[in-house]
Amino acid sequence: MGRESGNRRRLKTADNLLDIISFIDEQGGAGVSEIAEEVGLAKSTVHEYLYTLTDREYLVNKDGVYVLGLRFYNHGLSAKDRYDFLPTAEPFLENLARETGGGVAVIVEEHGKAIIVETAMGEHSVETPANKRVGHRQHLHCHAAGKVILAHMPTDRVYEIIERHGLPERTVNTITDPEELLEELAEVREQGYAINDEETDRKVKAIAAPILSQDDTIIGALAIDGPAGWMDRMNFESNFPDHLTSAVDEIMLRYDWENSSR
Fold it and tell me: What pTM, to 2 d.p., does this model score?
């Protein structure tokens, strides 16, 4: 029997399959017994799933430890290609990381989550669970980039995301009240950028500006982060917005020019 999702029913077999894949990904590899214990299935059933995934080249069996295969990477690249402004953005991200010294990332929204799709590391970059790799997913409300994206969404959509994912507390600074979040989103729209004041990770701050299409639809956000003390010494709330908006303007101008010349 499937799980209820809105007015539709999810397939239990598909849920099991995806739970197995997600667990293997989170663990960096897993054996049959630990997978069976995690997903609550018999070992014989897990064997069948693993055999199918391995035979289809989605998993690799390394002496009884199953790891993700590079076929997933191919699918990931195809998904990333949907954001066709990214090849244009890449050199500007590298320049921004060199100029500011911070970690730079492009974040987009998918299924109500923030997804990192491109990064560049500056001298003062810090690797955290929130920025460790392209493809990492996080809640929108505790990210500077996520708040920028939420600020440019209809209020009804913001409430849908809150209802689906909640507002979990990552640190003592995380906004967990819907009305407080909406107030901050209004400020973000007015000032043109958003701040992450140690809301995702302790001692890490960030600032982000929106990436808008020609019709002013939000397509992503550009963010700079770094150690909280260093960000404060850089007076980042005063100095970094201009860096961000200039980079976004250059990216989108170059992207539009490249498209028009094709």
Answer: 0.86
